[in-house]
Amino acid sequence: MGPERDRPPPTRGPTRHSPIDPPSPEPSPEEPERSTAAVALAWLLSLALVAAAGWATWRYHAEITAFWPPAARLYQALGVQ
User: Which CB contacts under 8 angstroms, 24+ apart, belong to 9-18?
Assistant: First the structure.
């Protein structure tokens, strides 16, 4: 009888003594929490980017239509001449 026979057989899955869902890990001290100001700045930058894209689409509609003719239908539906 060697040491291998003294070991219990491996088990699979959760047992009565182990939780099914392990607790979520706590944030590490190196991981800073996102501040409200950082989230607000991210939203502001995202909205500014969308607004700039909208402005450029309206401002350069002639160039966009010349480059991609099907865009003319979209501009016509929006009432941009």
Answer: none
69 touches 47 (CB < 8 A): no
Between 51 and 5, name the one with better pLDDT. 51
pTM passes above 0.90: no
CB 40 within 8 A of CB 18: no
Q: How far is CA 30 from CA 24, 27, 38, 40, in A?
A: 17, 8, 17, 22
Cα–Cα dist 34/39, whole Å: 7
Dump pLDDT digits (tens) for 19-44.
Answer: 566 666 776 666 567 789 999 999 99
Which residues have C-beta within 8 Å of that of residue 80, sequence separation ≥ 6? Answer: 58, 61
Q: Name the residue among 47, 45, 75, 70 with its Cα closest to residue 60.
A: 75
